[in-house]
Amino acid sequence: xxxxxxxxxxxxxxxxxxxxxxxxxxxxxxxxxxxxxxxxxxxxxxxxxxxxxxxxxxxxxxxxxxxxxxxxxxxxxxxxxxxxxxxxxxxxxxxxxxxxxxxxxxxxxxxxxxxxxxxxxxxxxxxxxxxxxxxxxxxxxxxxxxxxxxxxxxxxxxxxxxxxxxxxxxxxxxxxxxxxxxxxxxxxxxxxxxxxxxxxxxxxxxxxxxxxxxxxxxxxxxxxxxxxxxxxxxxxxxxxxxxxxxxxxxxxxxxxxxxxxxxxxxxxxxxxxxxxxxxxxx
Length: 282
Known about the structure:
The chain is about 65% helix and about 10% strand. A five-stranded mixed β-sheet has the order 2-3-1-4-5, with helices on both faces. The protein has two domains: about 120 residues, no CATH class; about 150 residues, Alpha-Beta Plaits (2-Layer Sandwich), CATH 3.30.70. The protein is an alpha+beta fold.
């Protein structure tokens, strides 16, 4: 996450905390007017739940503590008399525990949900994005490119003769080659670019807002890094990379991928282990 993204996230979290505290204060005023009934504590769950889910666990715990304080202040202002003075604080302590429990449970559910969502978008073997995420991301990028009239660049990477390598060295070695390939690709591009496994031995890259003049340099460096990564491990593996820059991405994603695939086929038919780039301008 870049500095700007972190700054915006902190600003958003601060806004949610302040909004949650304002809502808690409003509930405290309402609570003091109605009376400190135990059932009213359920209303404090709303800001706690919203802030925890949309901000963070830390933010939720802050609002939970503020809710307990607001409840105590409302109870004191209501003038309600208990059989024993300790009952007031016992009720608030019990409410505070329930507030903390709510924030912690929701935070754990949020983490589990995010992990599950990540699994549905990730290739389990290589850690790269899967085909579904690739097409979703591609659709978002092409929509944005059309809106702002930016080009879109897609790379298609094939491990040459991977099937033969798998049969010769075994599946475990083949899996290791795939993982090494995915890692080398991810280390060669920016964090904003998406790397996905598209097939058994095929990977794709969607470059976000890359200058057309820089594509050639990035792809050549990527090819060199891939060859170095596998040869450092003693594997005689080569790669073919087809790249297409769509100056006006007005076609569908399927049509764009067919165009990139055709460039890849040209490399396969001319000796493999090469890089070929074209600019497609409608």
